[in-house]
Design goal:
Elements lengths: L2 H29 L1 E4 L6 H5 L2 E7 L5 E3 L1 E8 L2 E8 L2 E3 L3 E10 L3 H15 L11 E8 L9 E7 H8 L7
Antiparallel strand pairs: 1-2, 2-7, 3-6, 4-5, 4-8, 5-7, 8-9
């Protein structure tokens, strides 16, 4: 193998590695497990901010640029809970703080309090079927090309997911 072939081979490897890592990161984002880190999850607690526990089930490092939990009630956005950049070691868990923001904060908290009451077995005051949650996980390709993995849940399904006892890590 001559000198130019070696240089070409090294250049190809250097170019492929960032793309391969980005693709692995996208796959890891789809496999990412998460739950509320503190005692019991409630949408009201989510509106006050808190910690989320993440579990990377992959045998390599996984990172994301932004993790957003967007709540909607009756097709209207109630608010966004945002967790900023995090890198998680292979097959391990990490806890990261998040912040909730909303244009109509008191209205969001009112809806969340009523829904938490209903999900805990209380009387139905507002329709729980109108609540749905979208989770966006941003993992840019080679650090500059935006890519977002989106997961959608019903409100009750999301509440159960966040109250999960154990993650796979």
């Amino acid at each position: 193998m001559n000198r130019y072939s070696k240089i070409t081979l090294v250049a190809i490897i250097v170019i492929i590695i960032p793309f391969a890592y980005s693709i692995l990161n996208i796959f890891a984002a789809e496999q990412l497990q998460f739950k509320w880190s503190e005692d019991k999850f409630s949408f009201f607690e989510l509106s006050n901010g808190g910690d989320v526990e993440f579990c990377n089930t992959m045998p390599y490092w996984s990172s994301f640029k932004k993790f957003e939990i967007i709540t909607f009630y009756d097709m209207k956005q109630n608010g966004i809970f945002t967790v900023y950049p995090l890198t998680i070691n292979p097959t391990s868990a990490a806890i990261q703080k998040g912040v909730f923001s909303s244009e109509e904060f008191t209205s969001a908290q009112y809806v969340f309090m009523n829904l938490d009451f209903e999900f805990d077995g209380g009387d139905i005051r507002i329709d729980p079927n109108k609540l749905y949650v979208t989770v966006n996980i941003s993992t840019p390709i080679i650090g500059i090309i935006p890519y977002t993995t989106t997961l959608q849940y019903s409100g009750f399904e999301f509440s159960n997911l966040m109250n999960n006892e154990k993650l796979s890590c």
